[in-house]
Amino acid sequence: xxxxxxxxxxxxxxxxxxxxxxxxxxxxxxxxxxxxxxxxxxxxxxxxxxxxxxxxxxxxxxxxxxxxxxxxxxxxxxxxxxxxxxxxxxxxxxxxxxxxxxxxxxxxxxxxxxxxxxxxxxxxxxxxx
Length: 129
What we know:
By secondary structure, the protein is mainly β. The chain contains no helices and 9 strands. The strands form 2 sheets. A 5-stranded antiparallel β-sheet has the order 1-2-7-4-5, with no helix packed on it. Strands 3, 6, 8 and 9 form a 4-stranded antiparallel β-sheet that branches. Strand 4 and strand 5 (about 70-80) form a beta hairpin. The protein is elongated, with a radius of gyration of 16 Å. Residues about 1-5 have low confidence and may be disordered. It comes from Cepphus grylle. Belongs to the adipolin/erythroferrone family.
């Protein structure tokens, strides 16, 4: 038997994913493929759009909350001015020791707040030891 999803429409197999903390803990040492797809809504900007300041958005999947180079997966997007819904994804392979966890981080350097929408997902699959 597999744990039941905690909300309708979710697929949840295995015990590594903690839906409360948003962390995936590796049950065994090995290589895992991770994917995060975030649906974000950009709200009204507080200030005028300033391209020189940057409207950069980074989404990372980091091991043990350590987002240093070579210990994370990262994608960078430059946001256009305006309000609206957009999607950003990051995927790749990370090596985790048994008991280590991985989680998703959003680094928002834009001038306006973002809200993660339902339908966003985060997955981990063991591909080899």
